[in-house]
Fold Tryptophan--tRNA ligase.
Amino acid sequence: MTRDTDPETEEPTQATTDGGTDADTAGADEVQLDPWGSSTVSDYRKLFDEFGIEEFDELLDEVPRPHYLMRRGVIFGHRDYRPVARAMREGDDFAVLSGFMPTGDPHIGHKLVFDEIIWHQQQGGDAYGLIADLEAHSARGLTWDEIDEHARDYLLSLIALGFDADDGTLYRQSQNRELQDLAFELGGKANFSEFQAIYGFDGETTVSHMQSVVTQMADILYPQTEKPKPTVIPVGPDQDPHVRFARDLATRMRFFKVTEAYLSQELDDEERPLVAGAYSALADELDEDETVRCEDAADWLEAELTPDSARDGAIAKLRSAGKEPLRPRTRFLDRNATEGAFEALIEAVSGEKRVFEEHVDAFDLSRTEAEDLAREIELDNGGYGFVPPSSIYHRFMTGLTGGKMSSSIPASHISLLDDPEDGYDKVKAATTGGRSTAEEQRELGGEADKCPVYELYAYLLSGDDDEFAKKVYDECVGGERLCGGCKEQAAELMREFLEDHQEKREEAEELLEELDFSLESERRGVAPDGE
């Protein structure tokens, strides 16, 4: 247990905390990523190993003018963000999209996503903000009147924080027919067993809830409906299942899969590097006019590698091919191509090629050239040509009372609609990472990494001023800064932020009224059964 300090007397008062930068949340023994649950992440490092999320710090230098949330490690992870960073550096097209489920007031935790969308828009990205009203209705059981009220509040805060509504796109899931048409097409590439495996759906799950998931997949890919381009989805790590599923569906929708190949049969991802190694070793020993045969490569693998499933599978395919020449080539596999698209591809492949019933092998095209050609043929023949979407992940904010910040616990969060004085009072009453006494604090220093109040400085109150955020941190851990004074300063800054934000929300009212955006749902019906 840690103890807080009274701001006036600097004497300790009882309080507990279980949050912090590393989110060592009490009771969270393992990583569970549930987009609709209340689980937290007990150790962000596990996400790198268990889910393939990459550390954002490793590419920070590749991002031009990185946002302070990136610089401070609040944005801690990513999935395939490099294409987006490259587009920013080179001035190419890219997009950013994230959505908001209107189940309550927007709060300072949502501000992280607002800021990430706005920053990407300022870097030249096509920006999309959506109201996930179908999800709110189907997964949370809100009525359409409740959804309408909350949707307005989210949009006003997004615009007040700097979203350029004239240059960006705002929409509601329920009112976007193009989105729903895309969801229908994506649904043809998904099946119920995947919903069970990814989301734990069962026989009690409503069809509307499942439909809302496919709609979310369409949301993630929606920025590419006019033109394929790198697209980033800023989310918390609990939303990663949606991102992974959307990346899978984007791949399944493609007309062609481009791979490296060596023989007429298709090798899997484990077999291909083994055959490549065999080819390289044998080719180095032959004269220019000699040819590596598949059976030679089979002999080499048998002699050089320890038996396992990949090695044995590669040998079997090579033996089947016999004396067929083993030659590197780029392969176009037919995934969903129409007959016209397949014929157009054959015509477009330049140089030496071999045409099979379900694939085309090109001997004079690089992998990159083949990828570009496949997408061009797809777009010319009515396909989407999707680029797998990227994502960035930010840490969960710790609740002001410790534990997870929750809309259902008013004292744990600050709503962007809170009266500024209420915001001031919530910060003054917040749990801290302080020591038991002022004397112990001065001697040992505070635990800023476990302090919800320091998170307010790092995530929001310091703004773009890294020097100020570092000063607060250093003074805390060095014992110079006591909790009473620190909370007083944070509370004053929070009051100023809320006053400024709510003034800008009033200014945004007029902008919102001018947009082609319906704030009143025309839908009827009751909320579906809860799950």
About this structure: The first helix runs from residue 44 to 50. DSSP finds 20 helices and 13 strands in the chain. Residues 1-29 have pLDDT under 50 and may be disordered. The two ends are 35 Å apart (CA to CA).
